[in-house]
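Entry type: protein chain
Record version: 2
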Amino acid sequence: MLRLDAAARLGARPVALHLLHSAGARLGLGRRALRDAPGPAGSFFGAGHAAAAPAIDWHGPFDGARHGLDTPLFASGDIRPVWETNRLSALTALAASGDWADAEALLADWAARNPPFRGPAWACGQECALRALTLATTLL
């Protein structure tokens, strides 16, 4: 009942786009467009991996092995806190304090636990763009 009310309030176009996206996910169209790729190798900031990797839950209640485009965004709870964590905002603070070893460890841990196109961090292009902006700001 609640979904019907939300659909009526949103209107036909957003509902149709959601149905099209859901049908594409069931057919595996996202997986064909974005194939598995190797993650980055080596140092990100040239600082090595001297620091211990932080204990961060990058996936929350979502499946980290599932293809990002096939991740059901509303089935396991609110995805917004997971996306907030995956924006890597701590990198900028670490870089500003000159703590490149911890920044390196944080980014290496994220890259190891979020391979390309796998998990909730890859479920939204806007979130990927925000992560890229954080990396660019960190390098400034």
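Comment: Residues 12-27 form the longest helix (16 residues).
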